[in-house]
Design brief:
Its main location: membrane. This protein is mainly α. It is 79% helix and 0% strand.
Length: 218
């Protein structure tokens, strides 16, 4: 038996690529959740209303202080006892999206904190409606400096998807373990997993670098 069997590698390649599509799907949907929910959490945490700011702060700090693995275990295995019956994939998307929403919330908050106080005062003085103020004045200034951090969390989320194999989500890592257990050859499938994550991570890094340059001020 060869140390690395290329023929066996090509045989399992289609199965691995099929599982990789699910990995990318989970990452994309989870990231959308993280971006949207993180923005609302950041705005809630900065709210002048304590009844809104305190719960948002508590949620963010609690989720950031507990492992993703425990959170997805809780969603998939505990919540069904209270009537929330969802599939493993749905639990994984919710878990990873909620987990990273709390990190993106802090990224957004740093962007909001970077807005000069004078601009907030000018918005109030000019009586600019809240929606117009955020969409036309605040958000464009918040997004530009936080793009690199948001890109880093996207890549980190992508690399954390193997955690979901613990709740039976058949993403690329779980598929590699399933294939390896059939004939006790783990080298080839695990190597393909490593190459997949390395390739996609490099592509994402280049993509976010281009986005960063595109949104940067002249």
């Amino acid at each position: 038996m060869n140390f690395f069997d290329w023929q066996y590698t090509w045989e399992i390649f289609p199965l691995m690529m099929q599982a990789s599509i699910k990995t990318i799907y989970i990452t994309l949907i989870g990231y959308v959740i993280a971006l949207v929910l993180g923005l609302f959490l950041a705005m809630a945490r900065r709210s002048a209303y304590r009844w809104l700011a305190f719960p948002a702060t508590g949620v963010i700090e609690f989720i950031r202080s507990t492992p993703l693995l425990i959170q997805v275990y809780f969603i998939f295995y505990v919540l069904p006892n209270y009537g929330l019956n969802i599939s493993a994939t749905q639990a994984g998307i919710i878990g990873i999206g909620l987990h990273y929403a709390c990190y993106t919330a802090e990224v957004y908050r740093s962007g909001f904190n970077g807005i000069p106080t004078g601009q907030w005062e000018a918005i109030k003085a000019l009586n600019i409606p809240g929606r117009a103020a955020y969409l036309d004045i605040i958000f464009p200034q918040v997004i530009r400096p936080v793009v690199p951090a948001l890109g880093n969390y996207f890549i980190a989320m992508f690399k954390d998807t193997p955690v979901l194999s613990a709740i039976t989500v058949v993403e690329i890592m779980q598929e590699a373990k399933n294939i390896g257990s059939e004939n006790f050859r783990y080298l080839e499938p695990i190597t393909l997993v490593g190459c997949f994550f390395l390739t996609i991570s490099i592509v994402l890094a280049i993509l976010f670098n281009k986005i960063e340059k595109k949104v940067a001020l002249p």
